[in-house]
Specification:
The chain is built from 15 helices and twelve strands. By secondary structure, the chain is an alpha/beta fold. The structure holds pyridoxal-5'-phosphate. Pyridoxal-5'-phosphate binds next to helix 5.
């Protein structure tokens, strides 16, 4: 007789499902028998990492028989200097995803609640559920944006963590620092408020020095090397927070949670910020071109402040399959309850041309 392992698992497992990532290129090639494909599904940096980061990874490769520095000393020192904070205020993670999970697990458990927007990054809901806490998904405003007032009203005595992506993925919306500060002012002082800035570099001019400008005792700013820094495959991110919050989170952090090549790559990438910001500028130029092209065809789902654009069409699912047939991989927003949206990461100029030239005939065919 086979065992029903879900019955054996912790109660919250029943309400969980595995995170569904963007389809890998290899999978699409296998499925469709194609020779090449363009992945525009995971908001990666299509230009790749800084050559200095690549060199650092190659150098680190010869050292991987050793454990990494479990305290990420050098990277933490660099990040502390960059953010003008104490080293004890930096929490490194295996991707900012892990940082989010550690923080939610550290502060919220059964009987507690975690508040986020229904259109917020899906990991907040998954991490809350995994921790056995109650996730409160607050309906959005105007279809896409976080409703900060409603989120504030959803916070009660049970709330331990509030999560807010700015800019948000998957909707690309942005709140000005003043609006975030008003929101922070409306929250109890003993709640952990994670302001997830995974796409910070694309709006650095608007957000400025968010850690120093925003004020709340429970403020956590999370950042990643996966997007503008082009190190998604390394898995490395971090948070800046009060040293007391980081000290608690460190109790839940796995030993050696960031790999040796990831540490080396992030250190080198941080030292090559001009290269990173140059690629951010390229991405923003391409994003404007894509958004204009979509708008001209009545397909723009809203302006995005991230490294992706939103396409809206009643037959979005159909369009996705037809694009995949031609080796283009966008992302459906159906898991977010937005079945008429596709999220398309901004690729290189050539990749975007391929996307657009595949898209127009698909639309023409749908209209026939
Ligand atoms: C808003 C947001 N936060 C966090 C992450 C997690 O990124 P990573 O774990 O690669 O740092 C992502 C990834 O897409 C994201 O969009």
């Amino acid at each position: 007789m086979s065992v029903d392992w879900l019955q054996q698992a912790v109660p919250q497992a029943a309400g969980l499902y595995p995170y569904v990532p963007g389809k890998p290129v290899e999978q699409l090639l296998r499925e469709k028998g194609l020779a090449e494909a363009v992945k525009l599904a995971s908001n990666e940096n299509p230009y790749g990492p800084s050559p200095k980061a690549v060199a650092a990874i190659c150098k680190a490769a010869a050292e991987v028989h050793r454990y990494p520095d479990g305290n990420a000393t050098t990277l933490k020192q660099m990040l502390a200097a960059y953010h003008r904070v104490d080293v004890e205020q930096i929490l490194p993670g295996n991707g900012s995803n892990e940082v989010l999970e550690i923080l939610i697990r550290s502060f919220a458990g059964p009987g507690d609640s975690v508040v986020f927007s229904r259109r917020g990054f899906i990991v907040y809901a998954l991490a809350a559920q995994a921790a056995g806490a109650r996730g409160i998904a607050v309906p959005e405003r105007d279809g896409l944006s976080h409703d900060l007032e409603a989120m504030s009203m959803a916070v009660d005595e049970s709330t331990k963590v509030v999560c807010l992506a700015n800019p948000n993925n998957p909707t690309g919306t942005l709140h000005a620092p003043e609006a975030i500060q008003r929101f922070l002012d409306s929250l109890p002082r003993d709640v952990v408020v994670i302001v997830d800035e995974a796409y910070y570099e694309y709006v650095a001019d608007v957000l400025g020095d968010s850690w120093h400008d925003l004020k709340h005792p429970g403020l956590v700013i999370s950042r990643t090397f996966s997007k503008a820094y082009g190190l998604a495959g390394c898995r490395i991110g971090y948070a800046v927070a009060d040293a007391g919050i980081v000290a608690v989170a460190n109790r839940f952090r796995e030993p050696f949670n960031v790999s040796l090549p990831a540490l080396a790559a992030a250190e080198a990438a941080l030292d090559d910020r001009d290269w990173v910001m140059d690629k951010v500028a390229c991405c923003k130029t391409e994003r404007a071109r894509l958004e204009q092209a979509l708008a001209e065809h009545g397909l723009l789902g809203g302006h995005s402040y991230g490294n992706f654009v939103l396409l809206r069409h009643a037959q979005a699912g159909n369009i996705l399959h037809k694009l995949e047939d031609q080796g283009i991989i966008p992302r459906s927003l159906a898991p977010y309850g937005m079945a008429d949206y596709l999220r398309v990461s901004v690729g290189t100029g050539r990749e975007n041309d391929r996307f657009l030239s595949a898209l127009w005939p698909i639309l023409d065919a749908l209209q026939e």
